[in-house]
């Protein structure tokens, strides 16, 4: 996304992708695009397939105490919505867009280290085609995820980490089954959280709260379907089942480093921050970061004005912390917390009832979920 935004400003870049094209185009990740993410993909000319295949949603449902409550987004947010479109589909569209520009995009190019971050010509050392090579550039955008070299290359003591671990994980299932409900369902239950989502009219995406160190082998398909039915089930409603196409465990973590910059390296997305998936913010936050960064880089090349680059971290972190709060709040409200403490459970139910009975509380959830225009 950043490479494309820079291209539109006439700025050259080299994209180094550690994995193969095949891998990144098929890895199942997030699936919910905020309104602003959709608008940006359209603005840069990459929204055509998204408009054809994306599933536009006007709300979500919250389920607790045997009932489902719909939160209607457009009426609560002045017409904003979300679109369900797999992250790997966004990646496919971005790759196709990049290839059309003719500018470099290298797959299986693994960055090994970043050097001379404090000078005018920082370098990336990377492996490609069995050789170690060096790339000198004006700026480095560290968009290499939470395990990448960018954050690791910043000298010790510069970045301050903020972190929260949660005592649970998600078991995720992708199944060849038509979605069982129009909308996503976030279900709070005494047995733990469950989520019904989808990828297409024939593919359902489902999640279950499990133990943090859960063993995937303990979850044969039958057990997973059975547990999903118990947590999501309602009178007169059945969960569609089908062949399980993929199954995996996702850890839950909140993490931020400050600042998101050191010298000539600018961190974006998971390289700088992680959110638990309950608020569907991860990919959207990465897109929001690079939008700010692309503007700052554009201004710097046009006029030599460094002020946007200097402000990048502060500006990006405002949205990051808003999303960190929202994701933590959704996670805390919807999961069975350690040991099933009855006081916690009463507070969660009180909060869920408030969100589902007060338009003002519902509007707060809705505007965060569809993505805030300003933070
Ligand atoms: C998904 O469809 O993968 C999904 C949807 C909503 C979430 C998290 C994941 O909050």
Walk me through this protein's architecture.
This protein is of the alpha+beta class and 375 residues long. The protein is 38% helix and 28% strand. It contains twelve helices and 19 strands. Strands 5-4-13-14-15-12-16-19 form an eight-stranded mixed beta sheet. Helix 9 runs antiparallel to helix 10 and helix 11 packs across helix 12. The radius of gyration is 21 Å and the shape is globular. It binds P-hydroxybenzoic acid (PHB). P-hydroxybenzoic acid binds next to strand 14.
Summary of the model, kept short:
This protein has twelve helices and 19 strands.
**Quaternary organization:** single chain
State the separation between the terminal residues, measured CA to CA: 21 Å
- Small-molecule components bound: P-hydroxybenzoic acid
Going across the biggest sheet, name each strand in turn.
5-4-13-14-15-12-16-19
SS summary, helix count? 12
Please mark out the parts with pLDDT under 50 across 5 or more consecutive residues, or reply none.
Answer: none
What's the alpha carbon Rg, rounded to whole Å?
21 Å
What is the 3D shape? globular
């Amino acid at each position: 996304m950043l490479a494309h935004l820079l291209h539109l400003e006439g700025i050259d870049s080299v994209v180094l992708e550690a994995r193969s094209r095949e891998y990144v185009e098929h890895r199942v990740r997030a699936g919910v695009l905020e309104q602003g993410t959709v608008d940006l993909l359209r603005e840069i000319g990459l929204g055509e397939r998204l408009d054809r295949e994306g599933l536009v949603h006007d709300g979500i449902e919250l389920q607790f105490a045997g009932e489902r409550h719909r939160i209607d987004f457009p009426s609560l947010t002045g017409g904003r919505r979300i679109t369900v479109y797999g992250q790997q589909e966004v990646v496919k569209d971005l790759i196709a867009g990049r290839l059309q520009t003719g500018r470099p995009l290298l797959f299986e190019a693994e960055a090994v280290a970043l050097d001379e971050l404090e000078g005018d010509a920082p370098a990336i050392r990377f492996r490609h085609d069995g050789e170690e090579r060096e790339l000198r550039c004006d700026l480095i955008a560290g968009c290499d995820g939470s395990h990448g070299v960018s954050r690791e290359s910043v000298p010790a003591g510069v970045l301050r980490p903020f972190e929260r671990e949660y005592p649970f994980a998600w078991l995720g299932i992708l199944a060849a089954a038509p979605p069982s409900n129009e909308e996503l369902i976030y279900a709070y239950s005494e047995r733990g959280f469950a989520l019904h989502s989808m990828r297409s009219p024939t593919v359902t995406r489902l999640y279950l709260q499990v133990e943090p160190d859960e063993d995937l082998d303990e979850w044969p398909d039958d057990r997973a379907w059975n547990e999903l039915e118990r947590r999501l089930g309602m009178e007169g409603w059945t969960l569609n089942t089908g062949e399980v196409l993929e199954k995996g465990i996702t850890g839950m973590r909140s993490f931020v480093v400050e600042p998101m910059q050191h010298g000539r390296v600018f961190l974006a997305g998971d390289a700088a921050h992680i959110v638990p998936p309950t608020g569907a913010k991860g990919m959207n936050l990465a897109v929001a970061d690079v939008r700010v960064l692309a503007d700052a880089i554009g201004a710097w090349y046009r006029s030599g004005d460094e002020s946007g680059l200097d402000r990048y971290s502060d500006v990006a972190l405002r949205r990051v912390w808003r999303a960190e709060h929202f994701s933590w709040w959704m996670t805390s409200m919807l999961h069975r917390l350690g040991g099933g403490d009855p006081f916690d459970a009463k507070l969660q139910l009180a909060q869920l009832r408030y969100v589902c009975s007060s338009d003002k509380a519902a509007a707060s959830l809705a505007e965060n979920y569809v993505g805030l225009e300003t933070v």
